[in-house]
Specification:
five-stranded mixed sheet; 5 helices; alpha+beta
Length: 273
């Protein structure tokens, strides 16, 4: 049984279906769980061949209406999400520097149904520090970006930073990268789909280039265009698209951009080589 399925089954048994009543807004428990998985993937740091470290302390920012609905259940939901992250890390062979915690916070700038995830790595006293870091040393080269006083990276306008081997920025118009030297792909629920043409149509139809089995997705929902810069265009879908937390009809993409269609999140990726 998959990690997400086990998470859903455990959640269904809490407080006689309380969560089923609470989560009538656009924010769904499984959607948050998927975002935490992606946060681990996007911030994984390889220490050596046997050890890949991922964040263990997460903040899920919610709009005021969603936060007001969920805060009475934050303890139970946080425990279930932490357990899900632990299961996913075991499946991916990730390791943590300390105990896993998931917190809910209110964000005044978010509309109902939108959320944002921030994370950091907190080492416990019993964790084995990777050499040759000193006790007060910061993250390894290519690791997390500068933090705010609270220790969390500031809320991203786009994607979380990637390791130095995969730049988190798109080539500028003044210095374009040759198309042949840039690999592009998308990730949906852990599955990678290469982008090898100028446009890529996503939707529920079997005629779409990438089919998404989601009742909230239109037959031809949106289209990714590999221009300079690359972009995503809504194709007149019923529910629209959300790109990096913003409802839109068209948006520029960069490595790590998150496109939400229905209840499915698509991660856009690009790298040199």
């Amino acid at each position: 049984m998959g990690v997400m399925k086990r998470f859903e089954q455990r959640l269904e048994g809490i407080v006689n279906g309380t969560f089923a009543k609470v989560f009538k807004s656009e924010v769904q428990p499984v959607e948050i769980a998927g975002a935490l998985q992606r946060e681990c993937d996007n911030n994984a740091t390889i220490w050596n061949r046997e050890r890949t470290v991922v964040p263990n302390d997460f903040i899920v920012e919610l709009s005021t209406p969603d936060y007001d609905r969920l805060s009475p259940y934050s303890g139970q939901l946080g425990d279930e999400l932490s357990s899900m992250v632990r299961d996913y890390a075991k499946q991916q062979r990730y390791t943590f520097m300390g105990s896993i915690k998931v917190h809910l916070e209110k964000a005044e700038d978010l509309d109902t149904g939108l959320y944002r995830v921030r994370s950091r790595t907190l080492a416990s006293s019993s964790s084995q520090a990777p050499p040759p870091q000193s006790p007060q040393a910061g993250p390894p080269p290519g690791g997390a970006p500068p933090s705010t006083p609270s220790g969390y990276p500031p809320p991203p306008a786009g994607a979380p930073p990637m390791p130095s081997s995969a730049p988190s920025y798109a080539p500028s118009a003044s210095s374009p990268m040759p198309k042949a030297e840039t690999r592009r792909w998308i990730e949906i629920n852990g599955t990678r789909h290469q982008i090898s043409r100028a446009t890529l149509v996503l939707g529920r139809s079997t005629e779409a280039d990438v089919r998404i089995d989601d009742p909230g997705v239109s037959r031809r929902h949106c289209e990714i265009r590999t221009g300079n810069p690359p972009s995503v265009q809504d194709l007149g879908s019923t529910n629209g698209i959300v790109v990096d937390g913003q409802h839109t009809t068209r948006a520029t993409l960069r490595d790590g951009s998150r496109i939400v269609v229905g209840s499915t999140t698509i991660i856009y990726r690009q790298a040199e080589g």
